[in-house]
């Protein structure tokens, strides 16, 4: 595997939360690779390939979100599994509440939240991926957290 692939191989991890399911995320990754191939002449070697791919991938996700109302089915999400039934039910309830609340967050803030918390990207990396300033990343994160907190509290979750 080429050394540049390491940053790309984890690309789809946040996308199920953004698009609503693993299959949609895989489709978006495929579309992003097609766009990457089509735009290969525009690639600047000064850019990191993974950042360029993330940018193209987030554009593909935003395009998909514009085409449809975002839904996040819990059944499609590949979360950690716990063997004890009470933990499974508890985790399922938490996931359901989180995904329902996340679906109410504006798409741009949801994407930034997913990149930050889901993929562990730093502010400047998110800015490069989304083509926005670090200040805008900060604003989207703040607004996204606030919207998520409000949505969770509206669903009876007080510890956020």
How would you portray this structure in words?
The chain is an all-alpha fold. The protein has a single domain (8-75, 82-154), classed as Butyryl-CoA Dehydrogenase, subunit A, domain 3 (Up-down Bundle). The protein has eight helices and no strands. The protein has helices at 5-8, 15-19, 22-38, 49-67, 85-102, 107-118, 123-130, 134-154. Helix 4 (49-67) crosses helix 7 (123-130). The protein is globular and about 50 Å long. The model is unreliable at 1-12 (pLDDT under 50).
Number of domains: 1
> Which blocks of ≥5 consecutive residues have pLDDT under 50?
1-12
Helix coverage percent of residues? 55-70%
Q: What is the oligomeric state here?
A: single chain
How big a fraction of the residues is strand?
Answer: under 5%
CATH topology: Butyryl-CoA Dehydrogenase, subunit A, domain 3
Number of strands: 0
Question: Strand-and-helix sequence, N→C?
Answer: HHHHHHHH
What layout of secondary structure does this protein have?
Layout: H1 5-8, H2 15-19, H3 22-38, H4 49-67, H5 85-102, H6 107-118, H7 123-130, H8 134-154
Helix pairs in contact: 3-4, 4-7, 5-8, 6-8, 7-8
Please give a handful of descriptors for the protein shown.
160 residues; mainly alpha; Butyryl-CoA Dehydrogenase, subunit A, domain 3; 65% helix; globular
């Amino acid at each position: 595997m080429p050394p540049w692939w390491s940053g790309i191989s984890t690309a789809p991890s946040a996308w199920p939360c953004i698009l609503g399911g693993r299959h949609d995320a895989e489709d978006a990754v495929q579309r992003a690779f097609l766009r990457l191939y089509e735009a290969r002449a525009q690639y600047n070697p000064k850019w990191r390939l993974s950042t360029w791919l993330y940018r193209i991938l987030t554009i593909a996700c935003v395009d998909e979100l514009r085409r449809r109302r975002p839904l996040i089915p819990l059944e499609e999400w590949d979360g950690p599994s716990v063997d004890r039934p009470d933990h499974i039910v508890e985790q399922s309830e938490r996931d359901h509440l989180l995904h329902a609340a996340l679906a109410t967050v504006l798409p741009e803030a949801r994407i930034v939240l997913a990149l930050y918390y889901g993929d562990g990207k730093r502010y400047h990396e998110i800015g490069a991926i989304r083509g926005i300033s670090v200040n805008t990343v900060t604003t989207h994160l703040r607004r996204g957290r606030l919207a998520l907190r409000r949505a969770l509290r509206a669903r009876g979750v007080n510890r956020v």
